[in-house]
Amino acid sequence: MSIQDEVTAPPPAKLAIDRVSKSFTTARGSVHALDNVSLQVAEGEFVCLLGPSGCGKSTLLNLVAGLELPDSGTVVADGRPVRHPGRERMMMFQESALFPWLDVIGNVLFALKLKPGLKSNERQEAARYYLKLVGLEKFMEANIHELSGGMKQRVALARALAPNPRVLLMDEPFAALDAMTREQLYGDLQRIWEQRHVTILFVTHNVREAVSLGDRVVLFSPHPGRIHEEFRIDLPRPRDINSVEVAGYATRITRALKQHLQEGAPAP
Amino acid sequence: MKRFLTAFGFFALLVAAWHWACVQKFWSPVLVPSPESVGRYLWESALDGSLAEATLVTMKRLLAGYFIGIVIGLPVGLLTARFRFLRDTLGMLALGLQGLPSVCWVPLALLWFGQTEAAMLFVVVMGTVWSVVLATQTGVRNVNPIYVRAARTMGSRWLHIWIRVIMPAALPFIVSGMKQGWAFAWRSLMAAEIFVTILTGFGLGHLLHYGRELHAMEQVIGIMFILVLLGLLADKLLFSPWERWLHHRWGTDKA
After folding, report:
1. Regarding predicted confidence, which is higher, A7 or A59?
2. Helix extents (H) in chain A
3. Minimum distance, in Å, between the CA of residue B152 and any CA atom of chain A
């Protein structure tokens, strides 16, 4: 399968998270990270998981990635229960998690080498294609430490996209970047998402970020992590994070968040 | 090139000062031989082949023992890093034995293996292996877990994770451990060669020892000079390329 076929025929994807619970045992006792959470994600949908820290949204992402398994409930991707990590669900982290012992293209090739059925020249072609897609074709041979934070996340995005996943799981990928770089990446991410029709689950604690990216914003509440409320964002794309419409949605969601935090303040 | 010339000039100056001190008769020539006599010894022993032979014998022992030490130490270090039980047992043993100068093994090595190459090899392995174990263990324990998580989402599994992710990520630690192992092995081999005569081959340590017995201090200093040279050469050939690559890749050279 050539790179062109992959681009023109995007694979279908759908996630069904059904009554999932997950607890962790730490040194300070048990943490109830997720409590009876259900969520359906349509193919090609961009869903933002929003909430304060400790609300289990990252845990949910890890469960969908298959990095962890739920205590109860099921995570189903494309009709098949998730038991392991898989190439069809790629993950991006807040730190770029790029490998410092490889150069830029080596990092992208790392993902491609694990995908069976590709010849060496096909891997090279694919790696170049995705680095070009994120605008880094001039930095293929650069070392990781030579890149800025924004460039690192672009490489991480190229690496995640390279095996042509059906689902992209993003765990606060832009949280550590400065505002200007972040706004550029919002634009790039929306462009790539529209081109490739991947399904995206995007974890953030930034309300405006969630509103300007997501088709849907799922608001989580902490202790234990639950889905509190969902908001459908009916705004045309591309969206500008500084627009009045985005601000309007953001205000509503922030109000809901605050109200809930007051109601649900943990007992002393 | 400029740095090389600087170093060369420095050493030339040292030898000149030494020569001057000898001409001025600062010390008796019995205590401190002149650079000329040391040079003469080196020249003669180079011509009759005894120096090359001894160097070959010593390097063979060192490289063989060092290689065995790494082959054992690397996997053991990976295991002690992975399993807490092994870390608390084998890892603790390694920590203890690393502190033991490995020349302390010479009496036992002689008892077990006799005056053979095996005894020398054993001492060198004991000098290398614990440093490599500990460095590998520390290196692996310091690998950022996010690398492993990222690799797993890309479809990397068990052996692939260990070989392609954890080992390269731990490489800076492993290389410095290998360097330390080399230094320990080198010291323990010299001590062992000076200490014990092995009939199957006379190494540099033996030549130094004979120099002492014959009270030929020019021989002692000549051999010391060769040892220093070999140490420098090993550093420049064996480790410098690695370290340069690590600095370049990890970006640790701009401090």
Report:
1. A59
2. 3-8, 57-65, 104-113, 120-133, 149-161, 179-196, 207-213, 244-263
3. 6
